[in-house]
Amino acid sequence: MESVKNGGMIVEDLHNEDHRQIEDIERSLRRIADLVKQKGREILAHFPITAPQFVALQWLNEYGDMTIGELSEKMHLACSTTTDLVDRMEKNELVERVKDKQDRRVVRIHLLEKGQVIIREVILKRQDYLAEMLDQFSGEQVDDLEKNLSLLLRTMIEQREVRS
User: Fold this and answer.
1) Would you place residue 14 in the very low, low, confident or very high pLDDT band (cuts 50, 70, 90)?
2) Partner residues linked to 110 by β-bridges
3) Do 30 and 53 sit in the same domain of this protein?
4) 27: pLDDT confidence band, cut at 50, 70 and 90?
5) Residues 29 and 81 in one domain
6) DSSP string for 40-56
7) What residues make up the domain containing 146?
């Protein structure tokens, strides 16, 4: 490692130190996402839906009615795969297909009450899990975590929009 003597102090190569820190942050985010996903699957085991169905319900809950194509794009799935997924969810009365009011040729997927209830219950259980983990943090640490994660998310969204 390259070092420079500066006023009696040794200053390590900051680039390598910054890179190690970025590696650590990326690894931590990946591991947290994996643990949350694992816990989410454990929670879903108690509900009558699969993980991909839950993801679809989340998109519909957050963004409202969508076409198969729009939902496929959000989920990064082929339209045929999404169609099969929606067929199963419709059969279980989680969603329904409705004709668009502006253009009757367009069919949108609409989240039904049963799907909304499942989403609320699963998210509540996931939030309970997170609250349990955060019980070990001080209020200030939780506030800082929320601010920093929100800032990172906003930055990533803005950069993605700039690049598209």
Assistant:
1) low
2) 96
3) no
4) very high
5) no
6) HHHHHTTTTS-HHHHHH
7) 47-163
Average pLDDT rounded to a whole number, residues 6-24: 68
Residues 92 and 142 in one domain: yes
Cα maximum dimension of the chain: 76
Q: Which residues of 89-114 are buried (b: 16+ CB within 10 A; e: fewer)?
A: beeeebbeeeeeeeeeeeebbebbee
Name residue, tokens 């839950």.
54
Residues 21 and 88 in one domain: no
- Is pLDDT at 6 greater than 60 in this prediction? no
Which carries the bigger pLDDT value, residue 101 or residue 82? 82
At residue 99's C-alpha, the angle toward residues 98 and 103, to 5°, is: 155
